[in-house]
Amino acid sequence: SAVISQKPSRDICQRGTSLTIQCQVDSQVTMMFWYRQQPGQSLTLIATANQGSEATYESGFVIDKFPISRPNLTFSTLTVSNMSPEDSSIYLCSVGYLAGSSPPTFGQGTRLTVV
Amino acid sequence: DQQVKQNSPSLSVQEGRISILNCDYTNSMFDYFLWYKKYPAEGPTFLISISSIKDKNEDGRFTVFLNKSAKHLSLHIVPSQPGDSAVYFCAASPGYNAGNNRKLIWGLGTSLAVNP
Fold it and tell me: By C-alpha distance, which of A39, A26, A40, A22 is closest to A92?
């Protein structure tokens, strides 16, 4: 299965600022997925990042708040914009299809605290 | 509305005994289920999965049972080891058999502590 490197692993940010999270995969993948886990909540899919096209966002998530880049088949970034304390969460990137030979694999996550 | 429910936030078992983690779901369209394990400061790691065409899948010490009529699945770990202490997440896919091959709906997780 793919190995994912995600950084930063954690950060403390001031409200109103933005943070960009990077996700690097050791193999080429068509789709990469970004999740959020708020405190006491389950993992929730934010968006699917496709190489060469706009990301597909899930209900409740918008591009202005969570812009995503996917410049090539091994890399993606998620930006959390104009942060508020409600954005304090763990953010995870993932690759892999349920229908493929390997189930979804996750990076180690980014623990974001907004103060 | 939580479509995948793990009603026990935590579970404590003795080393060598069986650990049983439970998961209930509400959507009858869910047809593929996965269990993930998560250690602190790490991402979730895939453990075992089961398709709705089966009622049991086994991999070493880990067995997942699926009861479709009850919309219930369980993960059995036998024998439990201290290294199994982690948070276990149940996840379900709506429409795997219909070609929806990416979206997972997750439970809140159960924290398992295996005591030496």
Answer: A22
Domain of B23 in residue numbering reads as 4-115
Indicate the residue of A42, A45, A106 with minimum beta-carbon distance to B43: A106
List all residues of chain B from 57 to 86 with a beta carbon under 8 Å from chain A: none
At A50, is the pLDDT very low, low, confident or very high (cuts 50, 70, 90)? confident
Structurally, chain B folds into a number of domains equal to 1
Nearest CA distance, B94 vs chain A (angstrom): 11
Burial of B107 (0-12, 13-18, 19+ CB in 10 A): buried
What pLDDT is recorded for position B97?
55
Q: How far is A24 from chain B (nearest CA, A)?
A: 14
- CATH superfamily placement of domain A4-100: Immunoglobulins (2.60.40.10)
pLDDT score, position A29: 87
